[in-house]
Amino acid sequence: MVDLHSQYIRLKNEIDTAIQTVLDSANFVKGPETEKFQQELSKYLNCSHVIACANGTDALQIAMMSLGLKPGDEVITPTFTFIATVETIALLGLKPVLVDVDPDTFLINIDEVRKKISENTKAIIPVHLFGQCADLENLELLAKSNNIHIIEDNAQALGSDFIFKNSDRRKSGTIGTIGCTSFFPSKNLGCYGDGGALITNNDEIAKRILAIANHGMIKKYHHEYIGINSRLDAIQAAILRVKLKYLDEFCEKRRNAADFYDERLKHIEGIRVPKRVNNSTHVFHQYTIVLEKYNRDEFADYLNNKGIPAMVYYPVPLHLQNAYKYLGYKYGDFPVAEELANKVISLPMHTELDEEQLNYIANTIYEYVK
């Protein structure tokens, strides 16, 4: 699904040098490399503050802590996504309020969000799923009119642009009150371990985030907030500094692969290729198709037997997970997410795909459907 080894070989000299620099400095936690990475990512995103942390899940938790959300406050988020989004809401004693997604884009359905807003709603967490942005312009209008924060889950879309109706463009993660991202190795900008970051243009919130991620400390041994210990180590920061220089190139390579898939697969009856929205560029963290008339297990087995990995994200929507039965949702509450969970499958998508590999994947799919 992701050829990290070939990518490493291509960047080996730069990566090895970056790691050796950290080893020689013996500054393993935070330190100059982490500071430089934060500054460089902030410049790339054209935002005021980037605060690195240990992983994307911590980023979501720290974001909600920094906004002062209290137990019982409601946070709206889609049911078709990775578990971390709802998990962090629940861990803080907040109430997850789930909504359905759009059947074509897999992104949060704003009409459904509007229905679920109550006097207890304090935040909305749209997930920029698979690499393109949710409709942030209309979400922002909705949030402002109800005095609600937007926390962007940008773990899969770092590097994408949101395009406003007036043609202004801003990087994903920089539009809500806070953006959260992950540097898990398979991400478009991935390190060689765990890592994450929070993004904000609000100076006061940035100060709280910085403190909360460091045990709630404003200055050493003076704890202003209840915090956690969440740090990006210097080796990971050094690796990310190298890879950040190539992020736009990485995203373009993924788009090129997606263009190839689109052209070869869009004419197959019963296979729906991913829809690209007009208000966002797409960085294709995943290339996810919908099988409308084929058995997914048989389709996946066929590809796997031909040496082609295929993955299902996400086979069980959040509202049907055992851990969240206490929320009171049942099968049938979110029909779009439930249908997608049974029909979506993702094809290999990474920066090292070449034309021979792409042709082999497409031809193998043609063999299956003929």
Description of the structure:
- The protein has 370 residues and is of the alpha/beta class.
- It has two domains: 235 residues, Type I PLP-dependent aspartate aminotransferase-like (Major domain) (Aspartate Aminotransferase, domain 2); 123 residues, Aspartate Aminotransferase, domain 1.
- The chain has twelve helices and 14 strands.
- Strands 1-9-8-5-4-2-3 form a seven-stranded mixed β-sheet, with helices on both faces. The protein has a three-stranded antiparallel β-sheet with strand order 12-13-14. A two-stranded antiparallel ribbon has the order 6-7.
- α6 links the parallel β4 and β5.
- α2 packs parallel to α8.
- The longest helix is centred in the N-terminal third of the chain and has 22 residues.
- The radius of gyration is 21 Å and the shape is globular.
- The two termini are 24 Å apart.
Describe the structure in brief.
With 370 residues, the chain is α/β, with parallel strands linked by helices. It has helices spanning 4-25, 31-45, 56-66, 84-91, 110-116, 136-145, 203-212, 234-244, 247-265, 296-305, 335-343, 355-369, and strands spanning 49-53, 74-78, 95-99, 121-124, 149-153, 161-163, 169-171, 178-182, 196-200, 217-219, 222-223, 271-272, 287-291, 344-347.
